[in-house]
Amino acid sequence: MAKSVDFMRLEDVYGAHNYKPIPVVIEKGEGVWVWDVEGKRYLDMLSAYSALNHGHRNPKIISALRDQMERLTLTSRAFYNNLLGEFERILAEFGGYDKVLPMNTGAEAIESALKVARKWSHYKKGLPKDQGNIIVAENNFHGRTITIISFSTEQQYRDGFGPFTPGFKVVPYGDSLAVEKAVDENTLGILVEPIQGEGGVIVPPEGYLSELRKIADRHGILLMLDEIQTGLGRTGKMFAWQWENAKPDVLILGKALGGGVYPVSAVLANDEVMDVLNPGDHGSTFGGNPLAAAVGIRAIEVLQQDRLDERAQEMGEYFMKHLREIKSDYVKEIRGRGLLIGVEIKEEYGTARPFCEKLAELGILCKETHEQVARFAPPLVIEKEEIDWALERIEKVLTEPIEIRGEKSFKAQS
Ligand code: PXG
């Protein structure tokens, strides 16, 4: 029987080397737990970067997918299907917008939002055609397409991939004054993440989002929020903008909208913005297909019925409080909101990677982001006992001596 090393070798030989996974080969998942090919059980505290808010193979979502698979899977948008309109209605009402533009992946939804915003700026706002600029934040992560990496500030994401798409102005994250200063006569919008997930779980200063809302209103430009990672309950609210009542003109969702089983993303906006799209302007073969619609409807239903936003808030507070009680020399800062939590490791103790690898040995899956930060973002269905189970192991890893360049560190106080 093939074992972990064989599966890893297979990926290494035949797969492009664009990832460096934690060396765990998963073959089964249920709720917050996954099992590797050797049968070892792990608590999943990454949740596929927040795509698994509902947990692995949530029974209600699996049954929606299974039922739909038995009827119809794909039509393309050349025809109507009997579920898409219902999905769009439910999602539009859930988000509080007139209209929905269904796509598949997060990056696609961001691209779609940028296209809609650019078109709006000319046909509705009256800016010169093809001249507009959009203000974005340093340290952003919105996906991997050429346009999106064109305004990334991460050298590696851009290296060798030019020429790049023009029309973006980058300002420091969390600094609303810098946004105000960057607005010029051709600015059409602002695009940011309410919390920077990939950037290292960076929570902006209080008032940032509401300031951006005011700036957008003052200049008649679009506030676009990428809630692909922060949305759908993750931060303790259904949408992270609700923390500051900074409802965007354009809301971008993905990841957990697919209930952890299927890629489903969407752009939400009111008619005034979305009406710039005419037949043929934009599209996607798979966007809004019947499987995606069935899964999306059920994903929203479960979020609402099981109040996963409130669970994230309650469990997040509990988790954060106890994380903060761990006395570790290695930790520089613990930050986050709801169940999106980052533990930053001091640079003198190396990166967060060895901590994540140790945690994996002890049965906890998490992943470093931006070298120094271990991110904990379990499925929102996690129970207190499971958090306690995790805390015991996290405490062990954060307080036991670690190897730094071959030397044992002094023992952290406990
Ligand atoms: N916006 C945000 C805030 C994200 O976290 C995307 C957009 C892009 O979504 P898609 O579905 O196109 O990946 C993300 C994705 C990776 C990776 O492997 C992506 C994310 C997080 C960690 C790794 O490229 N977030």
Query: What is the arithmetic mean of pLDDT?
Result: 96
Determine the number of helices (DSSP H or I, runs of at least 4 residues): 14
Distance between the termini: 43 Å
Q: What spatial order of strands do you see in the largest sheet?
A: 4-10-9-8-7-5-6
Query: Per DSSP, what share of the residues sits in E-state strands of 2 or more residues?
Result: 15-25%
Instruction: Give the low-pLDDT segments.
Output: 410-414
What general outline do the C-alpha atoms trace?
globular
Rg, nearest Å: 22 Å
The main pleated sheet reads as:
7 strands, mixed
Number of DSSP E strands: 17
| Small molecules bound | 3-[O-phosphonopyridoxyl]--amino-benzoic acid
The assigned structural class equals alpha/beta
| Residues in helix, % | 25-40%
Characterize the structure shown:
The chain is an alpha/beta fold and 414 residues long. The protein has 14 helices and 17 strands. It has helices spanning 4-14, 47-50, 59-69, 84-95, 106-123, 146-150, 155-158, 176-182, 208-219, 271-274, 290-305, 308-325, 353-361, 384-399; strands spanning 26-30, 33-36, 41-44, 99-103, 133-137, 168-171, 187-192, 222-226, 250-253, 265-269, 331-337, 340-345, 364-365, 367-369, 373-376, 403-404, 407-408. The chain has a seven-stranded mixed beta sheet with strand order 4-10-9-8-7-5-6, sandwiched between helices. Strands 1-2-3-13 form a four-stranded mixed beta sheet. The longest helix has 18 residues, at 106-123. It is globular, with a radius of gyration of 22 Å. Mean pLDDT is 96; it is low at 410-414. The structure holds 3-[O-phosphonopyridoxyl]--amino-benzoic acid.
